[in-house]
Amino acid sequence: MLQIENLNKTFELGGGTFKRALVDLDFVAQEGDFVTIVGSNGAGKSTLLNMVAGVYAADSGTIAIDGTDITSWPEHKRAKFVGRVFQDPMMGTAGSMTIEENLAMAYKRGQRRGLKLGVARNRVKFKALLAELDLGLEKRLKDQVRLLSGGQRQALTLMMATLKTPQLLLLDEHTAALDPKTARRIIDLTQSIVDNHGLTVLMVTHNLQQALEVGNRTIMMHDGGIVLDLQGRKREDTSVDSLLEAFSRVKKERFLDDRALLA
Amino acid sequence: MLGIWATPLEQGLAYGILVLGVYLTFRILNYADLTVDGSFPLGAAIAATAITKGIHPAYATMLGFFGGALAGTVTGFLNTKLKISSLLAGILTMTGLYSVNLRIMGGRSNIPLLREATLVTMAQDKIGFEWGAICLFGFIVVIIKLVLDYFLHTEIGLGLRACGDNEKMIKALGVDTDLYKIFGLAVANGLVAMAGSIVAQYQAFADVGMGIGTAVAGLASVILGEAIIRPKTIWTATLSAVLGSILYRFTITFALRAGFAATDLRLVTAVLVIFALALPRIKEMKLVKKIAEAKKTTTSQVVKHKTQPASTLIGSEKHATD
Questions:
Q1: How many other CB atoms are there within 10 angstroms of residue B256's CB atom?
Q2: Number of H helices, E strands in chain A
Q3: How many domains, chain A?
């Protein structure tokens, strides 16, 4: 599904200093994988997601989705394959535009846009979809999105990212800016949308509990590389404590074979 | 019948086309575009030259539109592809256009159209001298407003609006924001130049200096309209732009009658725009003051509250002793 080979990215910080954000990174996600990504600040989690989305160009290496090499594709072209939800609830929607207009834009993700009215015939469909969210938004189609709460906006963004089923869904700490209760709701919503569509997902999170609970695979990043890859039984046997322990060990020793780590 | 208000009404409607263009960049794309000062006389120069060469004034006006669209494309290219800041990109195009405009006008700084048939003289012949220009300009500006209203609700139009609202988001939804911005600037400057073409026909000359201050006058009109209508939808926003344009011309006429010299008007306009742009900041400062005062009063109330139970206590004691 998603194949990343030997990916490198270095940022120039100015004044002759550089930050190697991704170092010779290899990663393969299978169709239907729901991968949670953990790691300390500066580990390269967000960079990885942004590279897949095309925000930054790769220094070297390749990124392919379903066998199509997209390494040189610009961001807006990759939108055809990729749905995204950001950490900042304000980031995923256009505040001055109405709920139905936001949905209409998302409905055309990665497709050719024309001179047909954006909302028009889709209003009924949008209403039905919003009703499923159970936030009362179906009665507020013509309200500007800026009037919504952070949680409502994030729920809407999630819906927009998956309105046209994406091959790959990228969630960049999409619950981090919300209060615990709302975060819980958004995670539940994420789970049900992902299950319904059988999506392939990469989700960055700082919540280790969440990282182990949600999805079927967890990777840990450090210094621009993947230092731990948990799946199946191995993942089920991992607790938050042992993950934390792994965290501190990785920090001390820079690199550890994951087998040794869990022994 | 219209008396002294005929001229500002005619001007307001003619410049309304320009204000719709300014609205498109300033409010929809969130882009303060100074190309306007160059694309407005560009439209006038193209139309005047074309008309004196015997081209039908309707086609001459269309040519003006396309000239302006080209100018907007240049600004958009400078900004999006060469990463020159939006203000500087506009200033550069505007500066270059001064020479271009003089070239188009064959090296003359002024082309009179007094003896030519223009859209305005044609309308006045058909409808009458008093209402001719008003009907013509009103018709054109309403058509453009309606087309713009429709366009901004189409799939492309929604994408364009999102470019000004949340660029990161609409890029993630697959819109080539550079291309959309260039397109938006092209349409906006096309409208500005079209206004230039029409104003040249209205005043019966094109002058290379007629663009100075039009960008700021356009902003002032947009802001004035918004202050009156407080638009919440696209339909009302475009309406407020046109009404703002008329109101602006009325204000100017009023200021002139109040004794301002014509040369003072640029200052009046600039102050108007500064005031309007500063308004949110002023409101914010007032709000901060209010909150500070409210805090003061609530704390003093709390103090009163504390003393109150004591007095009631004394009262109850009295009751007890009674």
A1: 15
A2: 10, 10
A3: 1
Contacts of A76 in chain B (CB under 8 A): 171, 174-177
Most A CBs within 10 Å, among B29, B155, B156, to test the A interface:
B155
Q: Which of A215-229, B97-111, B270-284 has maximum average pLDDT?
A: B97-111
Interface check A77 vs B, CB under 8 A: yes
First CA to last CA across chain B, in angstroms? 87
Q: What is the separation of C-alpha A153 from the centre of its chain, rounded to a whole number of angstroms?
A: 16
Structural domains in chain B?
A: 3-259 (1.10.3470)
Residue span of the structural domain in which A214 resides:
2-94+150-253
Q: With beta carbons less than 8 A apart as the criterion, state whether B136 and B202 touch.
A: no
| Those residues with Cβ within 8 angstroms of residue B88's Cβ, 6 or more apart along the chain or in another chain | none
Instruction: Compute φ and ψ for A226, nearest 5 degrees.
Output: -95, 120
Q: How many CB atoms lie within 10 A of CB B242?
A: 24
Q: Is A94 on the interface with B (CB under 8 A)?
A: yes
Task: Provide the ipTM.
Answer: 0.89
Cα nearest neighbour of B160 on chain A: A105
The pLDDT confidence band at residue B299, using thresholds 50, 70 and 90, is low
Residues of A in contact with B81 (CB under 8 A): none
Quick one: pLDDT band at residue B319, thresholds 50, 70, 90?
very low
Q: Is residue A61 part of a domain?
A: yes
Q: Are A119 and A100 in contact (CB under 8 A)?
A: yes
Q: Looking at chain B, how many residues does it have?
A: 322
CATH code where residue A164 lies: 3.40.50.300
For residue B312, is pLDDT > 80? no
**How far is A243 from A228, CA to CA, in rounded Å?**
10
- Across the interface, whether the CB atoms of A97 and B170 are under 8 A apart is answered no
Contacts of A108 in chain B (CB under 8 A): 155, 159, 173-174
In the 8-state DSSP scheme, what is residue A255?
-
SS3 letters across B56-67:
CHHHHHHHHHHH
Which residue of chain A is at minimal alpha-carbon distance from B170? A105
